[in-house]
Specification:
Layout: H1 2-21, H2 26-31, E1 33-35, E2 42-44, H3 51-58, E3 63-68, E4 83-89, H4 101-108, H5 112-128, H6 132-145, H7 150-167, H8 178-202, H9 207-219, H10 226-237, E5 243-250, E6 253-260, H11 264-275, H12 279-291, H13 295-311, H14 316-324, H15 327-336, H16 340-354, H17 360-372, H18 374-381, H19 385-396, H20 407-417, H21 421-438, H22 440-457, H23 461-481, H24 486-495, H25 506-515, H26 531-537
Antiparallel strand pairs: 1-2, 3-4, 5-6
Helix pairs in contact: 1-4, 4-5, 5-6, 6-7, 7-8, 7-9, 8-9, 9-10, 10-11, 11-12, 12-17, 13-16, 13-17, 14-15, 14-16, 18-19, 19-22, 20-21, 22-23, 23-24, 23-25, 23-26
């Protein structure tokens, strides 16, 4: 059988070589592709070609992967430089045994895409059978034979970074070997990123692989860096980034059209800036790229953030009761809230901007950042790190010394409206709980960064190390709170290496585990980290 198989292969290869040798312009025919302007990337056309054979020969060779160089600030190509080196990455080794003799004959005859489709169907079959590792050589063969198969690149990247990653701890080979499991999982993520990297560079005119490359770097590898930001920005500039299919009626018939959808990538970029966190840049991005308000409108949104910070998310009720009341009620409310008319004006601006398509979410995000995080951010910029730490911890604990100081005023307004005491009590408790729960996602990241800033500016080595240890503990809180917070996971692991060598804070693990019994995990420390106190205790 083997002799017959290789006989067919030899005959097919001989026929192909003979065919190509009889054609004019053989060098051009061998490449058989067109280069994208400004890049070194080639899209292969259909027809007899040996370009795929070069990829087969080099696919399992360890080399420096070339990628399109993108400016992190703009998401555009960097001048005349079209490629940069991102470091070494080893692609999956190709296995010729996955090809039947008929497939090999088809490949040699120029029907590479058709053979790739057959291999893809077989890979899908293995997936449904739970045979993950059997998919590996098939997927590499598919993208090698048909480099414009976007779904194959995407699935291979996802399969390695998510499925194989999750399957590694289940393997008996790695039982009770946590360091090996971590290394194998890191390698699986890098292999997934390698697929997305190669796929994006060979298909630069579609946004999907640029976005998925960036998303996997951020949300699986935990890399919230400028390279990830650049990939998101690059994806946003590709023409199909906002295209979506919509079913409409035309002349009594149902037709499908491609229309411009929401700017999801723009939101993703702003959200990344929030979570790093870089709040000043996030606010500017929301304004300049997504909302585009007038200067007076932006000042109104800042004012809304201030009212939210005082009275909580129900601040607008104050304006509603005021506007619906008689002269006596208005006078009573104005005595409680002297700037109630400013509150109404600012909230009207919020409602006007939110009414525009694609602006509601950016408006809400802008106000949330302004209400919860910007006061501590300004303290940080002024070098007042302990004050910023105290304030941020107070926000996440909804300590009335730092946050929602105006809730008693809101209670009096609700009382004037005629609300029952128990209803008022319940509403205020819900406001506190909602603020406490939702502020921790980004708040813990910010608190860790504040402690790192304090460490970087500390002159005493003991102070410096104490701050770093509290930063590690805070990142660990975020990691324990959300198992999908790979940014926090990555940061804790960095602190577990020299020169820090910090070890798992078992008290935090236990504390957050206990909090889950109440339904929603609470990861914030009840008292803000006090570096002087920490040093004295040690």
């Amino acid at each position: 059988m083997d002799a017959q198989k290789w006989g067919v292969v030899g005959l097919a290869a001989l026929c192909l070589v003979g065919y190509q040798g009889s054609q004019s312009g053989i060098a051009q025919l061998r490449e058989n592709g067109q280069k994208y302007q400004g890049t070194g990337n080639i899209r292969e056309r259909y027809g007899p070609s040996l370009e795929w054979l070069d990829r087969l020969a080099n696919a399992s060779v360890e080399n420096d992967q070339k990628v399109i160089a993108v400016d992190p600030k703009t998401g555009t190509f960097r001048g005349d430089q079209s490629e940069v080196t991102f470091g070494k990455a080893k692609t999956v080794k190709l296995d010729f045994s996955v090809l039947s003799s008929l497939m090999i004959a088809g490949v040699a005859s120029g029907f590479k895409s058709q053979v790739a489709n057959l291999l893809w169907m077989k890979s899908d079959e293995y997936w449904h059978q739970g045979l993950f590792t059997r998919q590996v050589p098939l997927m590499e063969a598919v993208v090698t034979l048909d480099p414009q198969f976007i779904e194959a690149w995407s699935t291979a990247g996802w399969h390695w970074a998510y499925n194989i990653y999750a399957d590694i701890p289940m393997n008996e080979t790695y039982k009770n070997k946590p360091k090996l499991i971590r290394q194998m999982q890191d390698d699986a993520i890098e292999q997934g990123l390698n697929y997305l990297q190669r796929g994006a560079n060979q298909n630069p005119d579609t946004y999907r692989l640029w976005f998925e490359w960036g998303w996997t770097r951020a949300e699986k590898a935990g890399k919230y860096d400028d390279d990830t930001l650049a990939l998101y920005k690059k994806a946003r500039t590709v023409p199909d980034a906002r295209l979506m299919e919509q079913t409409v009626q035309e002349n009594g018939k149902t037709v499908t059209k491609k229309v411009q959808g929401l700017d999801v990538l723009g939101r993703t970029i702003a959200h990344l800036l929030e979570r790093r966190p870089q709040f000043d840049q996030a606010l500017d991005y929301y304004c300049n790229e997504l909302m585009k308000p007038m200067p007076l409108q932006r000042r109104d949104l800042d004012a809304v953030g201030d009212f939210w910070r005082r009275y909580g998310t129900d601040y607008a009720v104050i304006g509603q009761v005021y506007q619906g009341g008689d002269a006596t009620l208005k006078a009573q409310i104005k005595q409680l809230v002297p700037d109630v008319e400013r509150l109404i004006q600012a909230n009207n601006t919020r409602n006007e901007l939110s009414a525009f398509r694609d602006k509601g979410q950016p408006v809400g995000a802008y106000i949330t950042i302004t209400a919860r995080y910007m006061p501590a951010w300004k303290l940080m910029e002024a070098g007042k790190y302990q004050e910023a730490v105290n304030l941020m911890n107070g926000v996440m604990n909804v300590d009335p010394k730092y946050h929602l100081q105006g809730l008693p005023v809101l209670a009096k307004v609700l009382e004037l409206r005629g609300d029952a005491p128990e209803a008022i009590k319940s509403q205020l408790a819900a406001a506190r709980e909602a603020e406490k729960t939702s502020s921790q996602d980004i708040g813990l990241h910010f608190l860790a960064v504040l402690l790192e800033k304090a460490a970087q500016n500390a002159k005493d080595p003991k102070d410096k190390m104490a701050n770093y240890k509290e930063a590690y503990r805070t990142w660990y809180r975020s990691r324990e709170r959300d198992a999908l917070d790979f940014y926090a996971l990555r940061n804790t692991r960095l602190y577990e290496l020299p020169p820090y060598n910090f070890t798992t804070p078992e008290d935090i693990v236990k504390e957050i585990k206990e909090s889950r019994k109440g339904g929603v995990p609470n990861a914030v420390a009840p008292v803000a980290p006090n570096i002087a106190g920490y040093l004295n205790a040690s």
